Please model this.
Amino acid sequence: MLDLSRNNGRLRINRDCPQRWRVRVRAKIADKLEAGRVKDGRFATAPGTGPGGLFVVMGPCGCELKISVFVRPGWEHVAVSTPRRCPNWVEMCLVKDLLWDEEECVMQLHPPQSLYVNNSRYCLHLWRPTYREIPMPSPSYVGIVGLSPGAAAELLFNG
Model:
């Protein structure tokens, strides 16, 4: 039996549940996302039914984004596509922020080629396991903490 509780506008499943998985994707989705919910046709979902469904929103770079949200046992999964190209970093950040808290870690995966499933040339995916935290490297492995992009460029290219 699942022990469901609400916390800061999102649905959480208690860590002590026998299934030991917890949902963190927002239970009440952002107004911008809800306004873009597909309500007719094959992939229709009813307004106010939570995060699952297909949504179409205008992205921050002027390109329409199709956002498919799935919550399945063990995983939260979001697929993001555009009509003519893969979504860029800024667009993926928007989608991440529409669905998860800014401090929540989600990931893109590069699985072994033998496990690839490619139904669209212009689609990227965000994933978050519901059964454990995503391990992350130290921020110092990524770059120099506290150094601005301009200072980093100066150091790398003129240093």
Remarks:
- The longest strand covers residues 64-72.
- Helices lie at 31-35, 89-99, 139-142, 149-158.
